[in-house]
Amino acid sequence: MLTQTIREKAYGKLNLSLDVLGKRDDGYHEMLMLMQSVSLCDEVTISVAEGNGLIGASTNKAYIPNTDKNLGFKAAKVFMTELNIKNRDVTISIKKRVPVCAGMGGGSSDAAAVIRGLNRVLKTGLSFENMRTLAGKVDSDAPFCVQGGTSLASGRGTEFTMLEPIPDCAFVIVKPRFSISTPALFSKLDSVKLRARPDTEGILETIRDGDLYGMARRCFNVFEAALSPRERDTVEKAKGSLVNLGALGASMTGTGSAVYGIFRTESEAYAAEKELSRVFRECYVARPAPALTE
Ligand code: C5P
Question: Which of 7, 133, 218, 239 meets the CB 3.0–4.6 Å disulfide criterion with 250?
Answer without folding.
Answer: 239
